[in-house]
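B., you asked whether I could sanity-check this one before it goes into the benchmark set. Here's the sequence:
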Amino acid sequence: MAAAKFKNQNTTKVFLFFLMFSSLLWVLTKFSKQYSSNVNVHLAYQNLPENTLLSNAPKSISVNYLANGFEFIYYRIKPPTVELNLNKYYNDEANNVLIDRQALEIEISRDLDREVLLSNASIKQLEVELDHIANKEVPILIDAELELQNGFRQVDTIQIEPTKVIVSAPSQVLDSIDYIYTEKWVARNINKNQVKKLKLKTPKFEKTFLDLDAITATIQVAEYTQKNLKIPITLINKPDNITLMLIPEEISLMVDVDIDRFNEISEEDFEVVCDYTKRNEEDGILYAKLKTSSEHAYNVKLSEVEIDYLIFK
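And here's what the prediction gave me:
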C-alpha cells in the first residue's frame, strides 16, 4: 500500500516537471519570434538654440518596428527614450523647430538600432515650439518692516548693493516685469547699524531667471536727543517810518539732534522771521516762520507761530 502511494507521488512530480518544461519551451519559442507592434518612444530634446527655451513639444511618439516578444515586454515596462538634437534642425530667428517624418524615423532608428516607422501616418513632421529669451535690467525694491528703538532714528534710506538685476525671460513675460522685490526684512528695536543679506524673489512666471540670488541691504541709525534754543525774531519788510515791538521778541525752538553733534548746534544756526507785509492787521498778529536751520537739526518745532505786536506812533 505504501509502495503504491510513493509511486503515485513520483508520477505526479514527473508530470508537473514535464508540464513546466514544455510551458517554458513554448514561452521561449513564442517570445523569440519577431513581431511587428507599436511602442511609445519618449522624446528628449538636447542642444536647444541659444537664448531659447522649450515652449511646447511632444513628449512621446508612437512607432512601429520589428522586435521579439521579450523586447516588447521590456519596452512596455520601460519605454525607450530618444534624444533629438534641435540645433541640427533649427533655422535662425524661427519660433519653432521642424523635423520631417523621414528625418524623425532615421533619428529614432539610430537610437533603437532598428528600422522604425511612425505609427500615425498623418504626422508629416514633428514641431517643437520655442520661446525666445530676452534680457532686461530692472531696479530692485526692498520689502522691509523696521522699527527703531526709542531715541534712535534712521539716518538715510536703506542702501542696497547692487541696486539692479538682469531678468531673463520670454519676451512677452519680460514686458510685464518692471522691478524685483527682495524677501521681507523684519526687525524690531533697532539701536545700531544693520547689514542684512536678502534673497530676491523670482517672479512667478515660467522660464524666468535672475542673474543674481541676493543683495546686501544696509541701514544706518543714530541716537538722538532734543535740544531747546531761544532764537530772536527778525522783523522784515517793515516801513522805516513805523516803530514796532514784537511780543515776544524771541521764540523757543525744539529740535532733534544726534547726540554726537549736540554741541555743534547753536542759536546762530537758526533764523526766525516775521514778515510785516503778511501780518493780520485786524487781529494785530504777525506770523513766525523758520527761515534758516542747521543741516544737522531735524524735526524743528516753533513754540508758537502767532506773534503779537504793538505799533508806536
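One thing to flag: The chain has a mean pLDDT of 84. Otherwise nothing jumped out at me.
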